[in-house]
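To the wet lab folks,

You asked to see what we're planning to order before we commit. Fair enough. Below is the target structure as tokens, and below that is the sequence we designed to fit it. If anything looks off to you, flag it before the synthesis order goes out.
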């Protein structure tokens, strides 16, 4: 979780509803249910104390009537729904970790909460995405992971101090993801050369270019945007589930599933928090720049999803995408 002083979002509200608690934030309601009704009052007190002034250990010591595992489960649920921030000392600049959590809140709660899921995500969740759209998405993911190698060398070369071993660990995690997806696409019968020479869609290319640019010129923006690609609630398991509805080779399904599992396992999705936790504070100018860049990426990602759905839904297109000869 990486949060040291949990703070419930300032716009959230807590209310008791029969045998459960409801946390409301930006018109979204999240329910906390209890196997043991006796723990409800203690959990309500715990939530009221999430003001950013107490560490997790202090909250555990003060929480009469709750076991450590119950506290951990409650905090994990809140964090999983992006309802927690990181508390800072009064008057102090925003810490790196607090800013990372703020970026997650902007992306998932405020921007996506206002715009809703993309048409591609809705099609996947509703079971309406065609076989070609799902395979096309696999190709676009391959292009992003393949181009990721252009970003990995610069971040190792340009990072120093405590950031460098974190960067090396991240590179080792990412290394050969493109090979995994290549193997998956080969199982569909496409020649390796055809996959390697296939072309990403324009907005996939735009996303790739943004990441490549920031890895070379703006490491703070690069680190701050990684959470979008690692372990997030994008298409994920719903994409894998719908793939299983079509007559596709088992090796293709396995490659896509393993890639999805790796991105959602453990702390892999907390990489932005991990990098930013090394910064005691991040200044206002840097915050503004990173926020602008994250918004640029957000818009490019939404256009990429629209691009994928529009292009691969056409019955006459060929897969993989190549230059006309």
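Sequence we intend to order:
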């Amino acid at each position: 979780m990486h949060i040291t002083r949990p703070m419930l979002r300032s716009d959230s509200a807590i209310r008791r509803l029969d045998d459960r608690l409801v946390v409301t934030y930006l018109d979204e309601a999240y329910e906390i249910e209890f196997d043991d009704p006796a723990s409800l009052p203690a959990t309500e007190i715990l939530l009221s104390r999430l003001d950013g002034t107490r560490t997790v250990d202090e909250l555990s010591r003060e929480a009469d009537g709750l076991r450590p595992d119950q506290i951990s489960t409650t905090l994990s649920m809140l964090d999983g729904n992006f309802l927690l921030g990181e508390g800072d000392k009064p008057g102090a600049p925003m810490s790196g970790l607090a800013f990372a959590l703020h970026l997650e809140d902007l992306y998932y709660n405020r921007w996506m909460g206002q715009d809703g899921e993309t048409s591609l995500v809705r099609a996947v969740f509703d079971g309406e995405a065609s076989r070609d759209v799902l395979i096309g998405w696999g190709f676009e993911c391959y292009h992003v992971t393949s181009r990721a190698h252009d970003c990995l060398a610069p971040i190792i070369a340009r990072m120093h101090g405590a950031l460098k071993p974190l960067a090396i660990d991240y590179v080792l995690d990412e290394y050969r993801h493109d090979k995994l997806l290549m193997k998956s696409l080969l199982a569909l019968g496409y020649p390796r050369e055809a996959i390697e020479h296939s072309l990403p869609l324009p907005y996939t290319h735009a996303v790739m270019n943004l990441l490549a640019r920031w890895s070379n010129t703006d490491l703070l923006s690069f680190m701050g945007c990684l959470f979008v690609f690692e372990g997030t609630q994008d298409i994920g398991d719903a994409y894998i589930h719908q793939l299983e509805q079509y007559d596709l080779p088992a090796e293709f399904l396995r490659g896509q599933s393993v890639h999805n599992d790796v991105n959602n396992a453990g702390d892999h999705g907390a990489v932005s928090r991990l990098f930013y936790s090394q910064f005691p504070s991040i200044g206002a100018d840097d915050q503004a720049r990173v926020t602008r860049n994250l918004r640029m990426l957000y818009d490019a990602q939404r256009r990429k999803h629209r691009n994928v759905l529009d292009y691969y839904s056409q019955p006459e297109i060929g897969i993989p995408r190549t230059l006309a000869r």
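Structural context that might help your review: The domain at 96-312 is CATH 1.20.910.10 (Heme Oxygenase; Chain A). The mean pLDDT is 87.

Thanks,
Computational group
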